[in-house]
Write a structure and sequence with these properties.
By secondary structure, this protein is α+β, with helices and mostly antiparallel strands. It folds into 2 domains: about 130 residues, Creatine Amidinohydrolase, Chain A, domain 1, CATH 3.40.350; about 230 residues, Creatine Amidinohydrolase (Alpha-Beta Complex), CATH 3.90.230.10. The chain is about 35% helix and about 25% strand. It contains 10 helices and 19 strands. Strands 4-3-2-1-5-6 form a 6-stranded mixed β-sheet, sandwiched between helices. A hairpin with a 2-residue loop joins strand 13 and strand 14. Helix 6 runs antiparallel to helix 7 and helix 9 packs antiparallel against helix 10. It is globular.
C-alpha cells in the first residue's frame, strides 16, 4: 500500500470509529476515485454513481464488480492490493452473494443506495475526508490544472470570428480529451450572450467580437476549473472596466482563502469588493464558487457559511459581472494561496485587495 492510500485508509478507519461502523461501501465516482488514487468505476459520464463498488473495512479494501467491469478494473485501473470480487452481470443472486462476501456481518454505511442492500447512509463528515489533498495528489493536481489551462488558452487563441460557439466547444473538448481529461462542464458564450447568461451552453451562434470559454474538467477523479476571455478587434472601455472590477473581487476571494477562515467570511470579502467596485448586487446573479477537488464544487460559499478552509484544500472562485468573469483553480497552503491554473502565457492584470496583489487573467486582445 502506498503512503497516499495508507493515509486515506487511516482517515476511513477514524470515520468508522466515530460512527461505530464496521465498513463503508463507496459507489459514488468521487469517493471511488479518491480512495483508489484515480480509478474510474463509471461507464456513462453523466452520472454521480458508478457501476462498481469499493468496500472498505479496517483491514482491507475490495471492489465488487460485474464481469463486464472486473477485467478493466483489475487489469488497468486499480492498485494491485485492491482485489476484485466478480459476479455475472445477469445474476442478481450472485451479485448479492458478492456483496455479502465483501461486507460480512456488522454495521455498514453506503454513500449511495444499492438495490437489494439495506445500509445506513454516509454523511457530510465522510465527504470531508476528500478535502485535504495528500502530497502525491497535489503533484497530480498541479499537472491536471496546468493541462486544463493550457487547453483552454490554446483553443481561445485559435478561435476566429465566424466560428460558432459549438465549434469552439468541440475544439476544446478534443483538446482536453487528447490529454485524457474529461470535460464535466463546457461553456462557450460569444458577444451579447456572455452578459445575458452566466452559464452559456454552446449554440450555433457565430463569434463576432468576444468569446468566453469555461470548463471544469477531470482526470484521475480530480477536477480543475478555468475561465478565459478573448476579444477580437479591441476591448471597449466599459468591458475593460468591468473586467478590472471582477479581477479585484477575485483577488479578494483568493486573498481571504486561508486555513481556518470560514466560507462565509470569504463570501463577505467578495460582497465588500463588489460594492467598492461599484457593482453591489452582482453577487446575487451567480454563485461565487467554493472548494473543488473530486467534485466540481465540494461546498459553494454562501453568506454566513460556517465551513472552514483547510490547508492543502483546493478552491475555484468564479466571480462574475455581466459580460465578464474571472476563474482559476487555487490551492490553499499555510504559506498562502497557490494559483494552479496559471500558465504564464496569458495576459494578466495585477489585482489588489487590502494590500495584497494577485495576477489575474486579463482579456486576450486578438
Amino acid at each position: 500500500m502506498t503512503q497516499e492510500r495508507r493515509q486515506k485508509h487511516e482517515r476511513v478507519i477514524e470515520y468508522l470509529g466515530r460512527r461505530g461502523l464496521d465498513g463503508v461501501v463507496l459507489t459514488r465516482r468521487c469517493n471511488f476515485s479518491w480512495y483508489t488514487g484515480g480509478a474510474h468505476n463509471h461507464v456513462a459520464e453523466a452520472c454521480d454513481v458508478g457501476v462498481s463498488s469499493l468496500v472498505v473495512t479496517r483491514e482491507r479494501a475490495v471492489v465488487v464488480a460485474n464481469n463486464i467491469e472486473a477485467t478493466r478494473l483489475a487489469g488497468e485501473d486499480l492498485p494491485a492490493e485492491i482485489a476484485v470480487i466478480e459476479y455475472p452481470y445477469y445474476d442478481g443472486r450472485r451479485r448479492l452473494a458478492a456483496f455479502a462476501e465483501a461486507t460480512g456481518a456488522g454495521r455498514w454505511a453506503a454513500d449511495a443506495a444499492l438495490e437489494g442492500l439495506e445500509l445506513e447512509q454516509t454523511d457530510e463528515e465522510f465527504d470531508r475526508l476528500r478535502w485535504q489533498l495528500t502530497a502525491p495528489e497535489i503533484e497530480r493536481y498541479r499537472g491536471l490544472c496546468r493541462d486544463v489551462a493550457e487547453c483552454v488558452e490554446a483553443v481561445a487563441r485559435r478561435a476566429v470570428p465566424g466560428m460558432t460557439e459549438a465549434a469552439i466547444a468541440g475544439g476544446l473538448s478534443a483538446e482536453l480529451r487528447g490529454r485524457r481529461i474529461i470535460p464535466w462542464v463546457l461553456l462557450v458564450g460569444c458577444d451579447g450572450r456572455i452578459a445575458l447568461h452566466r452559464h452559456p451552453l454552446p449554440t450555433d451562434k457565430p463569434l463576432r467580437k468576444l468569446a468566453m470559454l469555461v470548463t471544469t474538467a477531470e482526470r484521475g477523479g480530480m477536477l480543475a476549473a478555468v475561465t478565459r476571455l478573448a476579444a477580437f478587434g479591441g476591448i471597449s472601455g466599459a468591458l475593460g472596466d468591468r473586467h478590472r472590477a471582477v479581477t479585484v473581487v477575485d483577488a479578494a476571494l483568493i486573498g481571504a482563502t486561508s486555513p481556518g477562515t470560514t466560507l462565509g467570511e470569504i463570501f463577505a470579502a467578495a460582497q465588500q469588493a463588489y460594492a467598492r467596485a461599484g457593482f453591489p448586487d452582482e453577487w446575487r446573479r451567480h454563485h461565487q464558487g467554493g472548494s473543488i477537488g473530486y467534485l466540481p464544487r465540494e461546498v459553494k460559499a454562501a453568506p454566513g457559511c460556517p465551513v472552514k478552509v483547510l490547508a492543502d484544500q483546493a478552491f475555484a472562485w468564479n466571480p462574475s459581472i455581466a459580460g465578464t468573469k474571472s476563474e482559476d483553480t487555487i490551492l490553499c497552503t499555510q504559506s498562502g494561496p497557490e494559483v494552479l491554473t496559471h500558465t504564464g502565457r496569458w495576459p494578466s492584470i495585477e489585482a489588489s485587495w487590502q494590500g495584497r496583489s494577485f495576477p489575474r487573467p486579463d482579456i486576450l486582445a486578438v
